[in-house]
TrEMBL record:
The keyword Transcription regulation applies. GO terms for molecular function: zinc ion binding. SUPFAM superfamilies: Zinc beta-ribbon. Residues 64-104 form the TFIIS-type domain. This is Transcription factor S. The lineage of its organism: Archaea, Methanobacteriati, Methanobacteriota, Stenosarchaea group, Halobacteria. Zn(2+) 2 binds at residues 68, 71, 96, 99. It comes from Haloplanus ruber.
Length: 107
């Protein structure tokens, strides 16, 4: 398996070269190690955790037990990520469905 030097995502073999499944970067296929490379199906978007500024939350689970600090709307999309140690609760990242404001909540 080969990983992208630019973003760290898994690369797959296409037309004799290695192509990153996330950013599209390419590199030459190392023929000596070609037997070691195995292509698999791509990761589904359901498994992605989107916490960076430009992340697309739309279509993710919806929380109705929150209130946006910017517009006071009562619905937000959210994702969950383990940001601390394994014995600590995960962090929920929210995006308001009305105004797009983003915030996090530590449980």
């Amino acid at each position: 398996m080969q990983f992208c030097d630019d973003c760290g995502s898994m690369m797959v073999t296409r037309d004799g070269e290695m192509v990153c499944t996330s950013c599209g970067a390419t590199s030459e296929r190392d023929e000596e190690r070609a037997a070691e490379f195995v292509s698999t199906e791509s990761q589904s978007d359901d498994d992605l955790i989107e916490t960076e500024e430009g992340a697309d939350f739309e279509g993710k689970p919806t929380a109705t037990d929150v209130v946006c600090d910017e517009c006071e709307h009562g619905e937000a999309w959210y994702t969950i990520k383990q940001t601390g140690a394994a014995d600590e609760p995960p962090t929920r990242f929210f995006k308001c469905k009305e105004c797009g404001y983003r915030w996090r909540e530590y449980n």
